[in-house]
């Protein structure tokens, strides 16, 4: 969604709260209820955007505001859509249990005592759905006991959040507990963009990218192009957000969306819920 319609992405009262916070930075706002001593760096976002606006001298889309607000060096960073490679400082890293194993092993080899940004591991991918929730979960805990023990103890040692088997699907946990308007989140799963339902820029990455950020290294991303989709009318009857994305995917094709962020704007977004926008 483009900037003038950004307020429709999430609850208006939440958006007003975010605006007040940015206007009165560096007021301390906790990153989440699970991390009361880690704070959202609104001051960095505000300072970076002031620099970028002067440099580009044009309006910014919502995704650009989020990405450029997290630049490692806003003064010297080259910014050309589809050309430049941005050096970014994400707010959070989220990992699912299958990819987290190698990512944490690599992080451990760095010899760093603590993760540089708030991070978490979510145990949902190794549960095989076969007979029913109760029996499938019990079987997963037994079969994957060594993996779960490794992830739990490693998270405790290096200060990562740990969501054990049975706690829920990673993407729903993230949108309910960790996402917030203006956040830049990377996750080791292709469905990480689900957190965009709350106005975050959430990107699926490989384990190596996650390790870099957890170790305090800037995350490199080719500057995305912007694709705007104007929605009009309202969802009703048997229609759902899935119908919208299937239509968009059909128009763009898989290749057409590569290297771009799709932003929705227009009056039509008002009938789409937060979880619908995650879709």
From TrEMBL:
<dbReference type="GO" id="GO:0005739">
    <property type="term" value="C:mitochondrion"/>
</dbReference>
<protein>
    <submittedName>
        <fullName>Aconitate hydratase mitochondrial</fullName>
        <ecNumber>4.2.1.3</ecNumber>
    </submittedName>
</protein>
<feature type="domain" description="Aconitase/3-isopropylmalate dehydratase large subunit alpha/beta/alpha">
    <location>
        <begin position="64"/>
        <end position="279"/>
    </location>
</feature>
<keyword id="KW-0408">Iron</keyword>
<dbReference type="InterPro" id="IPR015931">
    <property type="entry name" value="Acnase/IPM_dHydase_lsu_aba_1/3"/>
</dbReference>
<keyword id="KW-0411">Iron-sulfur</keyword>
<dbReference type="GO" id="GO:0046872">
    <property type="term" value="F:metal ion binding"/>
</dbReference>
<dbReference type="Pfam" id="PF00330">
    <property type="entry name" value="Aconitase"/>
</dbReference>
<dbReference type="GO" id="GO:0051539">
    <property type="term" value="F:4 iron, 4 sulfur cluster binding"/>
</dbReference>
<dbReference type="InterPro" id="IPR001030">
    <property type="entry name" value="Acoase/IPM_deHydtase_lsu_aba"/>
</dbReference>
<dbReference type="GO" id="GO:0003994">
    <property type="term" value="F:aconitate hydratase activity"/>
</dbReference>
<dbReference type="InterPro" id="IPR050926">
    <property type="entry name" value="Aconitase/IPM_isomerase"/>
</dbReference>
<dbReference type="InterPro" id="IPR036008">
    <property type="entry name" value="Aconitase_4Fe-4S_dom"/>
</dbReference>
<keyword id="KW-0456">Lyase</keyword>
<dbReference type="InterPro" id="IPR015932">
    <property type="entry name" value="Aconitase_dom2"/>
</dbReference>
<dbReference type="GO" id="GO:0005829">
    <property type="term" value="C:cytosol"/>
</dbReference>
<comment type="similarity">
    <text>Belongs to the aconitase/IPM isomerase family.</text>
</comment>
<keyword id="KW-0479">Metal-binding</keyword>
<dbReference type="GO" id="GO:0006099">
    <property type="term" value="P:tricarboxylic acid cycle"/>
</dbReference>
